[in-house]
Amino acid sequence: MFSLPRLWTHTGPLTLLLLPAAWLFASLVSVRRLAFRRGWLARVDVGVPVIVVGNITAGGSGKTPLVIWLTNWLREQGHRPGVVSRGYGSEARGCVELGADSTAAEVGDEPLLIHRKTGAPVVIGRDRPAAARMLRARHPEVDVIVSDDGLQHYRLERAIELAVLDAATGFGNGWPLPAGPLREPFGRLHEVDAVVQVVRGGGPWRTYLGLMTWRADYRPGYVWRLRAPAERKSLRELAQREWLAATGIGRPEGFFAMLDAHGVRHRARAFADHHAFRPDDLPADGAVLMTEKDAVKCADFAGPDWWAVELEVVPEAGFVEWMRARFGS
Fold first, then answer.
1. Same domain, 185 and 262
2. Are 102 and 178 in contact (CB under 8 A)?
3. 222-241 pLDDT, tens digit each
4. Domain identity same for 237 and 188
5. Structural domain harbouring 42
6. pLDDT at 3
């Protein structure tokens, strides 16, 4: 099956054909960045510090799990965080606050997962400053805002920029979109406050000349049954059978490799990122493993043996201390 992320891993005939479009895209990005740097376009200050979590590559680098960890960590430090997100794939128009009855179709799978895993107020909207203003108006107690996937949303004034990199994929072929995965040039990483490199399965991480990065290990936590979320097990406690591992995330290989590393026999089935799962996508009577991002879309029609795998984020101590120096209690 054709896949842009696979195309972006190397330089080939198709990527070369896309180079003119990539140069145009890179030029537009540069002009827009210059406009904000020179003050030709204004930033919006929403009255509280904003922590942006984003990346310079398209695809699944691991932003959402870090947003969840960061939001929960901020609360542990005594803050009252809120979150703004685009709500990719949602039916919403304008800005919408998530509620107890929100669905992934209405608000997007990632914002819904963030809301459920943190309990923090979440507002989605393409206009990030407008979303942040709504969040503050409805929740005046919020004293820090986390912007999910907001690195390129320059209009929103920010106190800290965190760029997330995937250690396994890096920068792909190094070309701008659509010939490669880059939303912005590599040099953008020298402007952010910190770079967090995601390592899955205890693997190695990469070094880049002139770029200091913090390490964050992403490990499987408990698995829970979709029909009975209170029922929790470790991966090693799962029945020894061949599972169907199904997921619709930006980099499904990371999920499958994590299962391999823990000895879980499985058949892999990858859907497109943000896939809107339907009952006939997966066997109702089968043994299915999926990510929590997938589970928020499958809970209403899950089979009796469908399980979601939690993701545990473990940043290195230096990064935690660096954050505590800026947002500690």
1. no
2. no
3. 999 999 999 999 988 887 88
4. no
5. 4-217+315-327
6. 63
| Same domain as 141, residue 84 | yes
Per-residue pLDDT reduced to its tens digit, 166-196: 998 889 899 999 999 999 999 999 999 999 9
The pLDDT value recorded for residue 276 is 93
Put simply, whether the predicted model's pTM sits higher than 0.85 gets the answer yes
Helices 63-76 and 317-327: angle between axes, nearest 10 degrees: 50
Is residue 257 domain-shared with residue 293, that is, in the same domain? Answer: yes
Mean pLDDT of 205-214: 83
Contact in structure between 59 and 181 (CB atoms under 8 Å): yes
C-alpha angle with apex 108: 102 to 109, nearest 5 degrees? 95
Peptide bond into 178 cis (omega under 30): yes
Rounded to whole angstroms, the Cα distance separating 166 from 197 reads: 6
Judge if 210 and 225 occupy the same domain: no
The bridge status of strand 228-233 relative to strand 214-225 is: antiparallel
Q: Which amino acid is present at 136? A: R
Residue 55, CB-side half-sphere exposure with 13 Å CA sphere: 23
Which residues touch 23 (CB under 8 Å, ≥6 apart)? 176
Which 3-state string (H, E, C) describes the chain? CCCHHHHCCCCCHHHHHCHHHHHHHHHHHHHHHHHHHCCCCCCECCCCCEEEEECCECCCCCHHHHHHHHHHHHHHCCCCEEEEECCCCCCCCCCEECCCCCCHHHHCHHHHHHHHHHCCCEEECCCHHHHHHHHHHHCCCCCEEEEECCCCCCCECCCEEEEEEECCCCCCCCCECCCCCECCCHHHHHCCCEEEEEEECCCCCCCECCECCEEEEEEEEEEEECCEEEEEECHHHCCCCCEEEEECCCCHHHHHHHHHHCCCCEEEEECCCCCCCCHHHCCCCCCEEEEHHHHHHHHHHCCCCEEEEEEEEEECHHHHHHHHHHHCC
> Which of 218, 237, 230, 225 lies closest to 289, judged by CA?
225
pLDDT of residue 189: 95
**231 in the same domain as 99:** no
